[in-house]
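User: ok so my PI wants both of these folded by tonight, can you help

Assistant: No problem, let's get them done. Here's the first:
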Amino acid sequence: MIKLMMQIKGKFSAKMIKRGKFSDEFFTEQGEFLSQEIDPVTKKIYVKEVNVSGTPTKDLFSMLKAVSLNNAEETKSLSTFKDFLEKCLVLDPNKRFTAHEALCHNFINLAPNLNIIKR
């Protein structure tokens, strides 16, 4: 999940990594990400050092749009969902959505009208 976050948002700052409680488990001293992956042959977990670039390599909207959309309303809902996710996934906790802000977002207001979301 951390690797995907860095692919979407870019590399974490050195300051953020140093402040993290478990940073030494997931990052080297140089700030490189330590990815835990499963060897396809032995099925054992191994740690691989991954160099993630400072700029995002994946686009959240493209990833979400991989699901086929039938009409303009679904595309609009997807754009609203993308905006909601981006605000929830801000790396700096001080700039991230609060629970109250998230509940007031347009996507949450759309949720009862969407067929894909069930309560």
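One down. Here's the second:
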Amino acid sequence: MAREGAPPADPGPAPAGAPAGGGLAPGGPSTCLPCHAQVVDEWRASMHAAAFTDPQVRAPGQSDNFTRAECIPCHAPAPIFAAGIEPGARVLARVERRADGVDCLACHALESGVAATRDGLAAPCAPRLRPELSTEAACAACHNQHQTHDEWRASPAFAAGIDCADCHMPHVERTGPEAGAPRRGSSHRFPGGRDREFALAGLELSARVEGRELVATLRNTFAGHNLPSDSRNRALDLVVTLFDARGAALPPPAGEPREPGCEAGFARVRYRNPYRASGQPSTQLPAGQASELRVPLPDGARRARVELAYKLQPLLSDREAHWTHGLDVELPPP
């Protein structure tokens, strides 16, 4: 009997004759290595490769070692074409090689051969053109579970014809025996929320003084979806710290509620998509929109520090946050 809280057992290779996603290419990514070693190396450096093994994914409060079985389909998916990628489709859970996470075959495997984005290719894996593989529809079955795809459709990026791959699969040039002459392709490293500079590149922070108020403004100027996106556990805090004439930080107003680990700053606001079961509303910052934090200035305030604290888990302490976008503002005397 499995101990309580143990991850679901990996049943191993599927029996012969299993449907697509159950018994295709049991070698997984190793099947692709002879022809696509550079692409596989990119994938190995991605969070797709760690989707089932990453400690933060397995942590209590997240998949809880995948005892939350509803998390498995997106973290160890069967080939997306097995269930279809039309609007509203959901991926199926893979029954073998779950430790490979979101692997090559999850996106490329077909009942016969593999899906390709170009026609006329000849290779042992029998590539077949599936144009929809290079569209956002290929991402939606997993990434719209937390409405990221819907957020994109409501964003300026959608109106401008910019989709998921334009940002998350940037163009790269590959060389070497498998590529022949330098050949342009799309990176399979899939930078996202764990790449902090990438995740925060679409934010603009500014501050101004209006009378006896400091107004801090955060704009989501570039990202094609809400920020922080997708994961219900990421948190982005806009923090304002006030200092007196001696450089000492002023304490926050008495009685102001703070979540654990969020003690720093005179004033702060949190952007986050909480768990649906919590009943709390999302406070994410939508694409193309701005948010203001207005801070009344006490008489002793002489300088302000305005910055962002990015946390991969909301209960991390401020010491464990990634602090960025810092601005220093001199305040007029009262």
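The longest strand covers residues 235-243. Residues 28-186 form one domain. Good luck tonight!
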